[in-house]
Amino acid sequence: MNERRLTPLDRLLAGINDALTTVAVPAGRAARDYPAADIDEVELDARAKAHAAGLMRVNHAGEIAAQGLYQGHAVVARDEKISAQMRQSAQEEFDHLAWCEQRLAELGDGPSKLNSLWYVGSFAIGAASGVFGDKWSLGFIKETEQQVCEHLSGHLQGLPDEDARSRAVVAQMRDEEREHGEKAAAAGAAELPRPVKDLMRLTSKLMTSTAYRL
Ligand SMILES: [Fe+2]
Ligand SMILES: [Fe+2]
Q1: Helix/strand number for the chain, H first, E second
Q2: Which of 22, 43, 142, 155 is deepest in the core (most CB within 10 A)?
Q3: pTM of the predicted model, to two decimals?
Q4: pLDDT digits over 61-91, tens only?
Q5: Ligand 1 ion: residues within 5 Å (CB)
Q6: From the CA of 175, how far away is ligand 2's center (Å)?
Q7: If you ran DSSP here, which 8-state letter would residue 70 be given?
Q8: What is residue 190's three-state secondary structure?
């Protein structure tokens, strides 16, 4: 089948459409099975439940930000193949988003109230880093995914031991974030300068500590 080349306007309109789909709750159906589908729900005490919900809300906000980043990159990517690759990763991130939303609902809680802010901020950062060229935007993706992997590993330790359903969701997400990072590296990602990496850590710390509560 012939694939039509997307004009910048096509990409922008697709981006706006993606944005509206992303921030809407419910996010929609994941294309793949829920990782916790076969795991029994256990009754958590109120404190453990609230903590698990806080962590899953952080992860949900992270996935909103991932949508913004990938879609922002895709809009400005110069190479059509890289743009398509980013859209594909964004689709997998969409499953993560839907899974986090489902787990939050199961824990009797809901997403961050600041989702639109996380999305718009990340979209702007994604598009801005793409302006410097594909190898830098790929470098940004590689670094982001690496930091997200570390962050999710921390959550696997921090989640209540008995909350196997949240763990299953987070573990699968972490494996896929690792693959996204490797894909970006293989596509020619540049290594970001240390101060940029530090700034990214700082920004995500701000976002995660806010989304835990709000
Ligand atoms: Fe993700
Ligand atoms: Fe990812």
Answers
A1: 7, 0
A2: 22
A3: 0.82
A4: 999 988 888 888 877 767 778 777 777 887 8
A5: 66, 93, 96
A6: 9
A7: H
A8: coil
